[in-house]
Amino acid sequence: MNESIGSVERVLVAGLPMPKGAYVHATVHRGIVYCSGQLGIDPVSGEMAAGVAAQTRRAIQNLEIVLSGVGSDLKQVLRAMVYLRDPSAFAEMDATFAEMFGDHRPARTTLPGIGFRVGVEVEIDVTAALEVSG
Fold this sequence. Notes:
Blueprint: E1 3-5, E2 8-11, E3 26-29, E4 32-35, E5 38-39, H1 52-70, E6 77-84, H2 90-101, E7 107-112, E8 122-129
Parallel strand pairs: 6-7
Antiparallel strand pairs: 1-2, 2-3, 3-4, 4-8, 5-8, 6-8
């Protein structure tokens, strides 16, 4: 179910579980996609990936699903925000982030020391351009 109010579109993307809170997977406004934070949860099994690298990879894969659902992709990511439980896991997260984004390097902020629920090590949100690079 997508909802448009004026030039703002609120998007729920097929392939991901419906949000359990008062938010949507993404909001699109004037060619910019604002994605809600994604965790390292497999959208099919509902299982949390084990470890920082696996959770980083799965969170980015979930963001790919959101971006694809609105007509964008990882190469259009302008900015990423990474919330990381353990500051000592930065290098592991960063290596996986670089692997997933390839040569593309969006602006990024990493906020360490976040107190998530048990088992959550990483959450990532992104802001992207709507147009897919060709």
